[in-house]
């Protein structure tokens, strides 16, 4: 494994250690100012990493024929795409936390371990995606159609999220015993000499499977920008690492961005068409970056200028800790 991959792995582990044992050492509900500060920090790290990308490709630290400036632009474009698509994931996570009535002060813990697992799943999916595109040219059309279908679903009538109908959740219920009460921030407890999962663990499994589903959209989108595995993985992971802080910023104001889904749909459509026309259309790398940035900015600005009816939760971070899980949630 090239040294740059090992170095990046150490870098990510260091960031995770900083997040869990320094920034969020104690269970608590992040205040808006704290969440905004952490979001700014993660974005600064993600954007600042583009400088390392330039140096790595300029000095040949990564085995690639890409010019340094092209690699940097591709990284920034991929980072922006993943960050924008993560905003849609925030709503689904809010629904999951609301359904399981996850106490607000434990939500960060669920997000941390959920995203940690997503790092490994996404690495496997990215390497598999890159391999398929390199070996089978027709996969460009498959990924392109997948993105177009995702764009269609995004602007169509959204499907309601029903955590209880998730097959993974049903499997958890059958395989391991699950308590009906929360036990602090523990995922597992021992009751009468039997190791049982808590509702917090079930919520974690749901968040994990949901992230994998969203990765089916986001990873092909980044592969439509570049098939360089290091650029795809680094931009994807650094965007995902900031999702926890971003959740606490957006969860209480997601209803203010009613037009953002149209911007995300346009971005997916643009990348999908670019994939399907890869043999005849080769726009400059900066074109993709500009199109995605302008489209995303337009969606945010229009949303703030015009009020739109939504069905989002009012403020999922305000959920109080229940003493027991509701009867229809018992596992």
TrEMBL record:
One Pfam family it belongs to: TerC
Family in the record: Belongs to the TerC family.
Keywords per UniProt: Membrane, Transmembrane, Transmembrane helix
Membrane topology category: Multi-pass membrane protein
Species of origin: Neolewinella maritima
Name of the gene encoding the protein in the UniProt record: alx
InterPro entries given in the database record: Integral_membrane_TerC, Integral_membrane_TerC_rswitch
Keyword Transmembrane among record annotations: yes
Location, primary (coarse class): membrane
Transmembrane segments: 6-23, 35-57, 77-99, 111-132, 138-155, 200-223, 229-250, 262-280, 286-305
Name of protein: Membrane-bound redox modulator Alx
Region of interest (Disordered), ranges: 312-331
Subcellular compartments: Membrane
PANTHER family associated with the record: MEMBRANE BOUND PREDICTED REDOX MODULATOR (PTHR30238), THYLAKOID MEMBRANE PROTEIN TERC, CHLOROPLASTIC (PTHR30238:SF0)
